[in-house]
Amino acid sequence: MRPFFVDSYEGIQQPPANASYIIRSHLSRGKTQVCSPKISTKMLLSGAEVYTSTESRFSIRQGQFLITAPAEELELTIASSAVGCCFYMDVDYVHRLTAEMISADLEGGDGEVPAVTTTRLPLNGSQLGLSMLAVANHRLDPDADVLATSLAETTVYLSHLRANLPCRRQSTQRELVARLEVARTFLIEAQDRAVSLRELESACCLSRFHLNRSFARVYGTPPLRFHQNLRLDAARERLGAGEPQRTIAEDLGFSALSSFSRAYRRRHHHAPSADQPK
Q: Which stretches make up the HTH araC/xylS-type domain (predicted)?
């Protein structure tokens, strides 16, 4: 992917028409209109940006990225300064990859290919976000095929999440999925400690009712059970490495070894002792 550097709101004068490319930007306070025929993913290394369309407003900061639908007109506002990367990818190529994934899921059958919709997501919540971050920090070469494949996978994944939501308005679906993905990523990153619902509510900006109900519908289990399952999966690895059951149970916050054993059986369908070295 060809890189460009931008430090003014004039942008690049002649973007490649038939190739994927990257814009590394360092912009001061200002405002401009942005629109591209390509699919783009925008991430920040520092600062904050606000993208406004006729229907929605997307605020992104460090640790987040924005998937932008092709040809969507957005107004970009930067309040102070922002450093980031924007990856532009060919629409037809991403669409073809997405169609192949849908066909594979249906064992060769035809299925509707989900459209790319403008959505804000946490960087650490997907392979796409992690790959973008690695490229931005010069830890990974910018491979258009790898990034386009990750984008197609993310598109399919997001369409599955939206299909499980009760709301039908697209803007509501996008915002709810964005907040649920923040919650899921938060739980994954906090699996080495206890988490309260109050803490999770604050992290994803959802009420307890909507958090519990929507999380269970989308991911198949309530958020605190999801978190406990992550910890019990890690406990299985620790048992296999020879750590004592009691030590693991105490680390996970179980008041008694029997409580840990019941939770472990519910998750793994056998006793903890079955996973200990013989």
A: 181-278
